[in-house]
């Protein structure tokens, strides 16, 4: 048997440093996951020996991580908005920048004194929809996606957080039928990467995350154009459309919103790195 200390050292030697990984943190998270212990336990019990089967699994996961396979898919876990989400291959891994979008919606929702209907377009893991359902008790959230694996992941997260106000539905935004349903808030982190740029992204994203959740068409704007069309049909008189954008898409998405001629005010919020990240249009 080998010690925790040796496993951590070997793992760091195996995993090469790249844009989207931190070998020191990765090996701790892998071993914590396998031992069902926190990182503090690893530091305090560095001399403890680890069963051979767990050690073998650790080396296997370290080698897989070195190939660029997302750690979140191996551990089936990602923290978002202070909640732990189940994630798996086939859904986009929730990212901290998307918390800006969720926080924006939570702030906006505070003005409603009645129950509000929220639609999350392209819900993926359900991170946005479940977070909103969890923190906004006066909401009914519809989590929409065309992917079966995304909807199954969302359902798992609804159950994980014991929610009764989030409802997943399978619908294609480009061929939709909402049966005259109207919404107070429509939110989305849509695919917004230009088709030709995807291959240039870090291997964690370009090779392993679902293209369906990344590909925004030739200019990255296909989903914004369609969302505005859909929103015009499903919005209430006093409603909001809020979307995540790429760091360089503020002008283009704002123009799409302006051309819709339904928004009285359009705002842009920046992410933690100071990049433009959320566009919000208000209907009054």
What does this structure look like?
The chain is α/β, with parallel strands linked by helices. The chain has two domains: 2-67, Helicase, Ruva Protein, domain 3, CATH 1.10.8; 78-283, 3-Layer(aba) Sandwich (Rossmann fold). The chain is built from eleven helices and eleven strands. Strand 5 (116-121), helix 7 (127-135) and strand 6 (139-145) form a beta-alpha-beta unit. The longest helix has 15 residues, at 52-66. The chain is elongated. The N and C termini lie far apart (67 Å).
In brief:
The protein is α/β, with parallel strands linked by helices. It is built from 11 helices and 11 strands.
Low-pLDDT parts are none
How many separate domains make up the residues?
A: 2
Largest sheet: spatial strand order: 7-6-5-8-9-11-10
Structural class assignment? alpha/beta
Rg from Cα: 21 Å
Q: CATH superfamily of the largest domain, please?
A: Vaccinia Virus protein VP39
Distance from N terminus to C terminus (CA atoms, Å) equals 67 Å
> Shape, please?
elongated
CATH topology of the largest domain: Rossmann fold
Mean pLDDT, rounded to whole units? 95
Query: What about the largest sheet?
Result: 7 strands, mixed
Helix content: 25-40%
The total beta strand count reads: 11
């Amino acid at each position: 048997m080998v010690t925790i200390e040796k496993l951590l050292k070997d793992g760091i030697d195996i995993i090469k440093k790249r844009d989207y990984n931190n070998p020191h943190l990765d090996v701790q998270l892998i071993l914590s996951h396998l031992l069902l212990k926190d990182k503090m336990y690893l530091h305090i019990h560095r001399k403890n020996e680890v069963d051979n089967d767990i050690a073998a699994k650790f080396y296997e996961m370290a080698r897989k991580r070195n190939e660029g396979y997302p750690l979140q898919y191996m551990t089936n876990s990602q923290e978002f908005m202070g909640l732990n989400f189940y994630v798996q291959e086939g859904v986009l891994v929730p990212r901290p920048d998307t918390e800006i979008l969720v926080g924006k919606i939570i702030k906006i929702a505070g003005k409603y004194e009645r129950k509000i209907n929220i639609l999350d377009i392209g819900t993926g893991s359900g991170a946005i929809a479940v977070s909103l359902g969890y923190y906004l008790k006066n909401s009914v959230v519809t989590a929409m996606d065309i992917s079966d694996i995304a909807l199954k992941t969302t359902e798992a997260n609804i159950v994980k957080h014991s929610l009764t106000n989030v409802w997943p539905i399978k619908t294609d935004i480009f061929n939709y039928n909402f049966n005259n349903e109207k919404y107070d808030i429509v939110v989305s982190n849509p695919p917004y990467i230009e088709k030709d740029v995807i291959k240039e992204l870090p291997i964690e994203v370009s090779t392993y995350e679902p293209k369906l959740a990344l590909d925004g068409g030739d200019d990255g704007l296909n989903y914004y154009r369609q969302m505005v069309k859909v929103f015009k049909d499903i919005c209430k008189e006093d409603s909001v459309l809020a979307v995540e954008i790429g760091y360089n898409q503020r002008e283009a998405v704002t123009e799409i919103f302006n051309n819709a001629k339904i928004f009285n005010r359009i705002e842009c919020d920046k992410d933690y790195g100071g990049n433009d990240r959320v566009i919000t249009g208000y209907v009054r």
